[in-house]
Amino acid sequence: MISASTPLLLDTNILIHLARGGTAAQRLESAYALTERRLTPFISVVTVGELLSFATRNGWGDARLAALEQLVSHLVVVDISREPVLRAYAAFDAQLTGAGMRMGQQNDLWIAATAAATGAIVLTTDKDFDVLHPGSIQREWVDPDTLR
User: Fold this and answer.
1) Could you tell me the domains of the chain?
2) Tens of pLDDT along 7-62?
3) CA–CA separation, 69 vs 86, rounded Å?
């Protein structure tokens, strides 16, 4: 269990589950008390772009987009142009390139750098962050099967 005082950075897939509502959102809230945490959860500005892209590709209407914007408005959006994020990104990119490794998507490298810069644990339903965990970042993997 993650302490309520530990900062969390929500991966895009977590936000999609929350935006859709239903059982998955309820289980995430129950397990991580996202709306009751001492520190409001963070998201990377990259996640905002990914969410808008997802919603556009899937034809979300005005009501669903408004609900998504409302959800995002209750989180702390971290800009990737901040110096600590840029430095973490450069360090992770050099580390992975030097080891002949890659992350699932380049956007995930930005999200990982945001987590490192904020000292947050990445909350995710995918394994893309495993190449940096636990040595460079901390991540909490949520089995997507438990959200159904």
Assistant:
1) 8-147 (3.40.50.1010)
2) 999 999 999 999 999 999 999 999 999 999 999 999 999 999 999 999 999 999 99
3) 26
